[in-house]
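hiii, so i know i said id send this last week but things got crazy w the move. better late than never?? heres the sequnce for the chain we talked about at the cafe, plus the structure i predicted for it. fair warning i was half asleep when i ran it
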Amino acid sequence: MTGRTCILKAAILSGLLSLVPVFSARPAQLVKQEIPVLAEIHNLRYYAHPNYTRIVLDIGVLREYVTDETRSPAEITIDVQNARLNPIVPETAAPGGGYIRGLRIIQKNPKTVRLTIEADLDKIDRHQVFHLFDPFRIVIDIHPKDAPPGPSLTVPPPKEKAPKPAQPARGGYSLARQLGLGVRTVVLDPGHGGTDPGCILADGPYEKDLTLDIALKLKEILEAETDLAVVLTRETDIAVPLENRTIVANQRKADLFISIHVNAFRLKTRQGIETFFLNFNPDPAVNELAARENATTTKTMGEMDAIIKKIVQNSRIIESREMAQKIQSNLVSYLSRHYSNVKDLGAKGGPFWTLLGSEMPAVLVEVAHLTNAEEAKRLRTEAFRRSVARGIFEGVKAYIQSLGKG
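okay and structure toks below
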């Protein structure tokens, strides 16, 4: 191998990027905001075969990429152009094998994602980089001279903030408040996405587009007005399995998880805002909503006992309930200052998959009903969606203040 730079044009037309609306579905129904097209890299996987290691970047959209190899440091790099990295992808990995020390994937700049393979070049016979279609993905095959076991790659934990006194929650002083824990990182989860559109009306819009827009607006407010780190489970129209959404938060050691949804109900007259935390609930309306939101899970009946135990033993119920109540009251209050007939449906427990498995306080916010004519009309306007984002922000701020932080 030599230290040459190899530039591979995956497709000439992929460099001629056009501008498209933020909302891919029913764009005429929503306010258009033009942004550059960025493919979303949503998976990094690898396979250690006896004779070689294969590394795969799943992109799904045709993109140009540039490969390079350096001796000092000993690395192979692949830069994917006009792409963004989904936060669900771990930033580091350790395929092992003795000739690959580790993988790093980062957002090199706003339009380029870089995959770095830390390799022992003296132990590598050759490597090749190529792409496959349907769906589009970049493949790196690394063939070693031998393959002894390799070391694992570790990531140092984040530094902790100094504790401060907290107010009691409605359920008393939780362990989190006794320990004076604060908030550093928030994960926002725009509901649905990709092949799962969520609630749909014949004349649009789709729930998946509305939730993404609200989440992006909330991220913008949080980053502008606080020092919190904000991560989205998806930033474009891709499908993220229900079970994987809290994985993003757990991997990032997040402190709060907020899932954003748009409601739907058989009775078209039903309207209002409701916020959920993980718990059981005898209310038939909540059970119907949970059944709809959980429809895409791949879990089976044989796992029911373990799932029930996980809900019952959820030690974050007190803080999740407190955050749900803060977000619910502040969202209703803020919207009521700008819109009439804003109905408060309350903060309540519910068995939602997107909340199960979180290692931090987690809530699901149903911001309005797409099946209600008045609320659907509001959801189509950017002003309402921005107001929703602002209302949720006020709730998050109030919750953090109740911890004695901020």
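btw The longest strand covers residues 100-109. thought thatd interest u
miss u guys!!
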